Amino acid sequence: MTQWGFYFDQTRCYGCKTCTVACKEWNEGRRGDAQINPLKNLSQYETPEKWQAGSEESASNLSMLRKFDMKENWRRVTFVELGDNPPDVVIAPLSISCNHCAEPACLPACPAKAISKEPEFGAVIVDSEKCIGCGTCAKVCPWGAPQFFEDLSLSSIGDPKHPKMTKCDLCIDRIKMGLKPACVASCIGRALECGPIDELRKLHPGATIYALGFDPQNTKPSILFKSRVAPKGV
After folding, report:
1. Confidence (pTM)
2. pLDDT tens, 140-191?
């Protein structure tokens, strides 16, 4: 197995969240409620003619707008504020998805054995058929990678409508086609890269496992950083 991972240049990130939107759009079909509450009768909106400029339907194409309303945020952009003595202040964006850890905390914690390491790229993936939606994986993950489309307390395990866990799968489908993950391909600041983690280390010899707002914990996350510099005195 060749372990793939991410490289994030915190100095290039604008915090625009384009990566988050791109992730939602590409993975819309994998959202947790995709099979539970599918929208119906949308075929009238899905022909190219309906997308002509100025058409009434172009402003209300629910099939397209739904792609950006995915409740799960597999890739998340947060902001770290450091320093209280201007101009020695830093607001640092941090773009994080599943880090496809070498020793993921979620895998041994899953009572249904629904989580595994994919053998070709080392991605941590979930089998939704096995998942019971207990939420244990979400509790043990340091970065909130396991996602559910609604509060688990609203339904019980065994209910057909009970949420199943979903998460970033490294866009394996895109990688196998020779494409970059959706988040990487969409990044306007070119702050994200993805590839074999050993190759990323060679390409970025100064990279570290730390960044402002990120602590690698003890799960050996497959991510490298070029971190912004903390303000003086912090």
Report:
1. 0.84
2. 999 999 999 999 999 999 999 999 999 999 999 999 999 999 999 999 999 9
pLDDT tens digits along 30-89: 888 876 654 433 344 344 455 444 455 554 555 666 666 688 999 999 999 988 888 888
What backbone torsions phi and psi does residue 12 show, to the nearest 5 degrees?
-100, -10
**Strand 192-196 versus strand 4-9 pairing type:** antiparallel
Domains parsed from the chain with CATH numbers? 4-33+71-226 (3.30.70.20)
Whether 148 contacts 166, CB under 8 Å: yes
Quickly list DSSP for the chain. Answer: ---EEEEEETTT-----HHHHHHHHHTGGGSTTTTTS---S-GGG-SGGGGSTT-GGGG--HHHHGGGG-S--SSEEEEEEEEEETTEEEEEEEEE-----SS-SHHHH-TT--EEE-TTT--EEE-TTT-----HHHHH-TT--SB-SS-GGGS-TT-TTSPPPB---TTHHHHHTTPPPHHHHH-TT--EEEEEHHHHHHH-TT-BS-BTTB--TTS--SEEEEPPPPPTT-
User: Is the CB of residue 158 less than 8 Å from the CB of residue 168?
Assistant: no
